[in-house]
Amino acid sequence: MTEVAVIGASMTQFGERDAWIRGLLAEAGRACLDDAGVNSDEVEHLYVANMASGEFEGRTGIQNALVSDLAATPAYTQRVDQTSASGGAGIYAAWQSVASGAADLTLLVGGEKMTHRTTGESTDVIATLTHPVEYKHGVTLPSFAGLAARLYLDRYNAPRESLAEVAVKNHANGALNPHAQFQREIDVETALDSPMVADPLRLYDFCPVTDGAAALLFCPVDRARAYADRFAVVSGVAGATDTHVVHERADPTTMGAVVDSGEAAFEMAGRDPADVDVAELHDMFTILEFLQLEGLGFAAPGEAWRMATEGRTALDGDLPVNPSGGLKSKGHPLGATGVAQAYELYVQLVGDAGERSVGADVGLACNVGGFGNCVTTTVMEAG
Amino acid sequence: MTEVAVIGASMTQFGERDAWIRGLLAEAGRACLDDAGVNSDEVEHLYVANMASGEFEGRTGIQNALVSDLAATPAYTQRVDQTSASGGAGIYAAWQSVASGAADLTLLVGGEKMTHRTTGESTDVIATLTHPVEYKHGVTLPSFAGLAARLYLDRYNAPRESLAEVAVKNHANGALNPHAQFQREIDVETALDSPMVADPLRLYDFCPVTDGAAALLFCPVDRARAYADRFAVVSGVAGATDTHVVHERADPTTMGAVVDSGEAAFEMAGRDPADVDVAELHDMFTILEFLQLEGLGFAAPGEAWRMATEGRTALDGDLPVNPSGGLKSKGHPLGATGVAQAYELYVQLVGDAGERSVGADVGLACNVGGFGNCVTTTVMEAG
Fold first, then answer.
1. Under an 8 A CB cutoff, do B52 and A54 touch?
2. Which value does ipTM take for this structure?
3. A190-207 in b/e burial notation, b at 16+ Cβ within 10 A?
4. Which one of B50, B60, B141, B237 makes the best mutation probe of the A interface by having the most chain A beta carbons within 10 Å?
5. pLDDT band for position B7 (cuts 50, 70, 90)
6. pTM, full prediction
7. What is the pLDDT of residue A1?
8. What residues in B contact A1, CB-CB < 8 Å?
């Protein structure tokens, strides 16, 4: 099997952007090629991770537009959709394109343009990924998160403040990330006093609606040195599904697809949780950071909340989680998110993370589609 | 590189179906697993080729629903969108998943549910894949086809009847295909007297709006014999793009992405056009059959129309084209089409094509996205 390297990465400013999806993708794609010093006519495959440009903006075929905008014709292209995990699925697709020998230089660009729609409209577009019966009864992803959070707090006697600590940490990290949507610290009181959204979760337990894009450039490891002095290696990547109907799961505080994709990615990489120096987890809701820490084996069931309250997941902790600011602070443009998680790992691994550098050799990213309906996990290491 | 086999295939009845996208995908997926005698819990990757379930039906995450509906959890899944070439892109994605070693058993299901929308609405959804300036001026794919057809007929002094002969042939073939939307023959006069749509193209130069799904099951060639006595091998598969803005192309009667993807697929397979015994071409419009015959090297520029008038592309000709009935007669449920093309090659290659069998050892399928914006070509051979 061909080993696959990441030789360049980029992300745009996240937030409310005065640009449409096509402009965001082109901005990230160009910046990534510039980062690697590669001409666009060398690109053989170009994957676009995006959930819903048609629903949000009335535009389809954005992958074909991007190939033209980057002057990469006749590069092959395809759109990868795995709902809110489209970016992670894009990493898996790009990895497969290089590992299979189909392409030697594959560009992945993930992005979403959302802020021109109201928060309600965006939430509704996302909710179309739920089971039709869930959807008809008005269940949205935030409501699932509220139910899971209440159960978690009750079952494990975890303090409500522990969820607020996740938001406080990720805002502190985001304050160091010039690409983040929110670059300001908050305190626990602000989080706990914010408006109720889905009891017990409040406004600061949720990621915002965001525009943005991110990109990664892949090639075989044995060619990486020709392009870059410093690069990263995708040592493990895998994806898994859980039941489409959330209430059919045996244990609502265990995300089966996190467990399965994590185990497969660790096995492929020949790594275990103790080897990981930095993790980017899918904190669309604060409770998800706990469920992923436990599902991936970083904490025993019911123990992840202690990692937050003890500061172990802070930048100076033993396992920094979401040094980028996470979805909470950096923002969550659906198709961009998984790619932006890997961007953060890349800059951490090659030494470009600036103030938020944690000195990592091994990183992990977990990208959650729906409410754990499909999850991808990626292990990246310094090349 | 791992060689990749197709060990099972299926397609649903195409036409106006009383089922939503989820039901169509599950029907095709189950039938394909039954065809191969494989249990759903053996499936490792499941790719869903679909352009626009969100736009047509307001449902997203249909790939996750399908995994649950087939009882294939925790199989990894992703939706593959390459507009009207989503099926061909799905073949390429499934090939990559097996060839890379990521999965040993990969199911591809392509489908689209369209007939609950008016023809105008469907045409508009498809037109969102064009360049925004083209879209704003009301240009649709049928209008591009009309312009290309007029130029082709004028430039090569080809008779208008040659286009009608494509429709007549594909209707004759469709009459032998129990899955086809239209199972009745037409004559040249009927085609020539049908209502004008985009001068010089008339109603019978266009494929219908269709519901349907199709599926293929892939595994490494060295494992295929364990599953099936007869199987097919994907010996070549490639994709390429052309300019996103159609009028930027140097020659409107040459589809660059057909040429590029065809050359790459032939090179990978170690084949040339003379080796091909049967072809499934993307006859969304009759003129496209000529442009693909020429772009793929089956005919010199300006000569493909003679293949139609001389009967060379008929079932008993030297290169049978669209024995399935093609998009014209079989129907064109966008995400299903590329998969259904490969279904036809599969049944031709393994000897299950019944009355329309042409006795083929090597087959080729060409799936066109947009107006040639992105094209995939697949070469399949008897295993």
1. yes
2. 0.97
3. bbbebeebbebbbebbbb
4. B60
5. very high
6. 0.98
7. 74
8. 100-101
